[in-house]
Request: fold
Amino acid sequence: MGSSDRVVIVIPGDDPPQIQGSPHLDRLRQYGEVILYTDRPKDREEQLARTRDAVCLVNTRGAVKWPAEALRACPRLRMATVCGIGTDAFDLEAARQLGILVCNIPGRTSPLVAEHAFALMLAVAKRAAFQTAAIKAGHWPRTVDSVYLAGKTLGLVGTGNVGAAMARLARGLGMRVLAWTFHPSDERAAAIGVEYVPLDELLQTSDVVSVLPAR
Reply:
């Protein structure tokens, strides 16, 4: 196999660590030469120097951006993937024109995003920052100032994978869940336990509104 035929898989800037040290890298090495950089490239020149021979790119950090001119500077590149749902680090139209397949992992990170959104909702309702600061200062604040979420209404703008996970968490706390999406259906509503309503109604009647990614 000549040097032009070898499959080079590049992870251009795994910082903070995402996949370095993962045993799955050994599985990946069955398919080609894996080159992993544990620091982010300091500039575009270094970024392209690292990836110029790449056939496959694993962009573990969205801080490393791939506009059209960067993609054109990687003539062997045929596939790029991210370790999450967001593909916003790539110029997708340029990738399409260049024949570069850009992949993501929809649904895999949904529980993490939903739990984070749910934790933020609880933090606001329970005034967590204020309560923590007061306790550190030696005070014991009254809890009557907190908002009790049980029985309240959560409005979800978007009911993709993250929205569905958020709905499950909210129902577990005893909240009513309203939702809005471009393409509502009775089947989807029943599957994830929400009631689809017009956006104006959702905004007017919800105690908490969460805007969630569709993937």
Observations:
- The first helix runs from residue 24 to 28.
- The two ends are 40 Å apart (CA to CA).
